[in-house]
Amino acid sequence: MLTKEQIASQISHCLAGTNFTNLGTRYEGKVRDNYTKDEKRILITTDRLSAFDKVIALVPFKGQALNALSKFWFERTKDIVGNHVVEYPDPNAVVGEECTPLAVEMVVRGYITGSTTTSAWYNYQKGVRNFCGNPLPEGMKKDQKLDHAIITPTTKAAHGDHDESLAPEELIKRGHITKDDWDKLAAISLKLFARGQEIAAKQGIILVDTKYEFGKNKKGEIVLIDEIHTPDSSRFWKSATYQAKFDKGEDQDNINKEYLRLWLSEKGFIGEGAIPAIPEDVIVETARRYIEAYELITGQTFEGTPGDPLPRIEKNLAKYMS
Ligand SMILES: Nc1ncnc2c1ncn2[C@@H]1O[C@H](COP(=O)(O)OP(=O)(O)O)[C@@H](O)[C@H]1O
Ligand SMILES: [Mg+2]
Asked: For residue 40, which ligand has an atom nearest its CA?
């Protein structure tokens, strides 16, 4: 594990963004800078942290940790579904096959939890007993395990919009996805989630919930795109402390971006208005949790490549520049 000092000294080298003019058509997502050229999509995972659908902070080593974790999981799930990966030319970058994204995000949940208005727990507390087509029993408690994993899909909102949770029938009716594709995505998503839970469990980690994105490649095959089982797209808790904390009604030991979301909501920020100034120790702790997630899940030490990322990325992507 990198020391707090090593993490802090990378703050001045956070990757805020890129602006390469010779790498193809640029699209800036909340977290990744995307470049499309010659049927390839280069995704550069920056150090931007998004929460409440906004970019909130820069977190040192976050981009590298996410990119490395996605790599770990893509390799361990490709027997279930193919993925977009072509190569990893840089610690912050992956080159993928350019795909046509399917217009739904497949959210899979193994537990009832969350704090935002789109979360399963928030809705349950408000009295919802059928969440996106999934019946929920009476008497559930926060953070309780569901009998079986459920899928609560959302639309994939255009830039700046909020995603909307909908039952599958409604997604199909409104033309977001065909019935045939839905059935395939649902089966694949549950298999991916089961694999994720199984591998995480061996490391003493609970994969609580996650989100998958799929696309179609030029052969028309469904492939997994974007990222998989990272602390941005997923919730992770520590298995060892789960039961005791659940029994006492305490917050779980999380290793995901919930840490910063909770810190912000304690400061009164839940998405609207000015973002409170985030002190350096909170940024360092946020980074530490991303690195910890990488190390706990993979069982490997996070090396991290310190220093200024921009010249390095430019060099490593040279063959894609024209
Ligand atoms: N192989 C791919 N082909 C096409 N689109 C992709 C591929 N992989 C990821 N994407 C898209 O690229 C974007 C990644 O950037 P991100 O920062 O996650 O954006 P967003 O703010 O839309 O979540 C997402 O919109 C994702 O759907
Ligand atoms: Mg995204």
From this structure: 1
Query: Ligand 1: which residue has its CA nearest to atom 16?
Result: 29
Domains annotated for the chain, with CATH where assigned, are 4-100+259-320 (3.30.200.20), 102-214+244-248 (3.30.470.20)
The Å distance, Cα 141 to ligand 1 centre, comes to 34
The 3-class secondary structure across the chain, one letter per residue, is CCCHHHHHHCHHHCCCCCCCCCCCEEEECCCEEEEEECCEEEEEECCEEEECCEEEEECCCHHHHHHHHHHHHHHCCCCCCCECEEEEEECCEEEEECCEECCEEEEEEEEECCCCCCCHHHHHHCCCCEECCEECCCCCCCCEEEEEEEECCEECCCCCCCCCECCHHHHHHCCCCCHHHHHHHHHHHHHHHHHHHHHHHHCCEEEEEEEEEEEECCCCCEEEECCCCCCCCCEEEEHHHHHHHHHHCCCCCECCCHHHHHHHHHCCCCCCCCCCCCCHHHHHHHHHHHHHHHHHHHCCCCCCCCCCHHHHHHHHCHHHCC
Look up the pTM and report it. 0.96
Nearest ligand to residue 162 Cα: 1
CA of 140 to the centre of ligand 1 (A): 35
Residues with CB under 6 A from ligand 1: 29-32, 34, 41, 43, 84, 96-99, 101, 213, 215, 225-226
Question: Which tens digits make up the pLDDT trace of 276-309?
Answer: 999 999 999 999 999 999 999 999 999 999 999 9
pLDDT value, residue 160: 64
